[in-house]
Structures are given as C-alpha cells and as structure tokens.
Predict the 3D structure of the following.
Amino acid sequence: MARTSLLDDNLSSQACADCPIRHRAVCARCEQHELDRLEAIKYYRSYEAGQTVIWSGDRMDFVASVVTGIATLTQTMEDGRRQMVGLLLPSDFVGRPGRLTAAYDVTATTDVVMCCFRKKPFEELMARTPSISQRLLEMTLDELDAAREWMLLLGRKTAREKIASLIAIIGRRDAALSLRSAGNDLTFDLPLTREAMADYLGLTLETVSRQISALRKDGVILLEGKRHVTIPDFDRLLEEAGDDSDGGLLA
C-alpha cells in the first residue's frame, strides 16, 4: 500500500494552479473552472523507492500524474524474465482511461509522489472537457514518439550513446519543469542509480560506470558525487548521444 507522509498532508491543501508540474501535466490547458472540477476528484499518494505502484493485470481504479520522482514501466515474460519498457518522469501520466486493468507493472524507482484522480469521475470529466482530452492525446503521441526513439537507442546505439541519451532526456525534462532552456551549464541531479540505469539500458553496472567516467574524463559532463551533473555544452552531449541539436530526443 502507498504510505502517507507529511508531504501528502502538505500537498493535500495545494491548489492545482500552484502545482510544480502544472504547465506540463494533463491539466496544462485547463481553465480555472476546469481545475476546480479536478480539485474535487484528486488526492495524493506517495511511494517509497522500490515499492510497486500497481501490478500488470490488476484492476486500476485511478489515473495519475507523477509530481516528483521517477517510476518504471516493466513487463514480465512467462518464464519470469523482466524488461523495463519505459520511464515515468515528473508530469507523465499513469494509467489509461477506458482500460480496466494495468498493462504494465509500475514501480517507484525513487521516492514518488503522484497526483491521482478517481478513474470514473476523471473519464466523465474528460468526456466533457476538451482541454483535458486534447492534452492527453498530445501526451500519448509524445509517448509514442519516445517509444520509437527508445527502440533506436536500445537496438542501434553504443553503450556510450545510450548513457549520453539518457542523461540528455533527464536533463531536458528537468529544464522543462523548471521553465529553463536545455542550454549550456545545465545542472541537475540524476534521479536514477547506476544499477537502475544499467537495467533500463540493457547494460552491465560496470559498463554504465565506465561510460559515465569516460564522459566525465572527456569533459562532456561534470560530475559532483555520483549524481550531481553539469552539462557544459548541451550540443556536444547530443553529438555523443548520436543526435543533433534540432531534436530527436524527447524531453
């Protein structure tokens, strides 16, 4: 079960208009009266790192937006093998209106806080609120583009390009949430351990550590401790990721 915390209590009184993911979440285009309707059906849940949010096949009675932290989408094969198939970053949407059960295991990689909506009321609200349904469609299409990009990353990129790509993705999202551009001297904390990065990228822990050290040695990233990252030249990072500065990686 999700744990309750002081953070939950603090968020419970937070208005949607003051939410840190407001400008990127499913409610990004809502007018105030529409936000008021969302307020009436929302609640917060927090999960500790490693805790399962929901299992594949379980009935899902809520949909949610990730407010803080990172979760993974994982699929398990019949023989027990597991594969991470997606990352859920702040402002990403969890669940699918119209589907009764979860398609994937959702697991908190870090401590996670989600803004949840009771599913049936959300579906009813979405049906009569074009701004919500249109924004959800945009996010779904962005997710499809990201999945296609991830197929390229896993299938064709080298270990160095994989690490550079993941750092760029996280850096862009962090900049977008802070309403900054992903320019030079971008500084942020990596939310994933190296073990989690290895699992997600299909690499060994040793390879991840070696490639991060190589990127640091070559001046592509600056590293303070294990997770505090500064990117001196974002275009150079994209070159190392096998992408150009015009895009190809989704924030």
